[in-house]
């Protein structure tokens, strides 16, 4: 089992245990479902940020120098290098997989609990 799979299993099991404890303490299912839904949205947002972090979004940006100023160190950027980096495949690392999968499970469980 990979690390992100262990983390996902642990977080989902922990969240369901917290939901069960809240139910035993007398919280309505609507509150538990809303809480799981919000945590799921936060985890999905975390997963999307992890995907975008590997996207090389700012590759090739330059700072323009003012007239009469010396050239900046990174001002000359090879166009072919920028194109090859930007056209590279999307990288979905372990953190992104954890966030997206755990968040999706929490959202589904939250919606199911809200409907009851």
TrEMBL record:
Could you tell me which residue ranges the DUF3899 domain spans?
A: 33-115
Membrane-spanning residues where?
36-57, 96-115
* This protein's UniProt keywords: Membrane, Transmembrane, Transmembrane helix
This one is known as DUF3899 domain-containing protein
């Amino acid at each position: 089992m990979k690390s992100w799979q262990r983390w996902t299993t642990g977080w989902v099991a922990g969240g369901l245990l917290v939901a069960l404890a809240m139910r035993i303490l007398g919280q309505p299912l609507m509150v538990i479902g809303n809480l799981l839904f919000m945590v799921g949205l936060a985890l999905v947002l975390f997963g999307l940020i992890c995907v975008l972090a590997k996207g090389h979004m700012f590759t090739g940006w330059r700072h323009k120098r003012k007239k009469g100023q010396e050239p900046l160190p990174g001002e000359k950027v090879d166009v072919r290098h920028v194109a090859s980096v930007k056209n590279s495949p999307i990288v979905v690392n372990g953190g992104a997989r954890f966030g997206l999968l755990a968040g999706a499970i929490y959202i589904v469980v939250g919606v199911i609990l809200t409907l009851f």
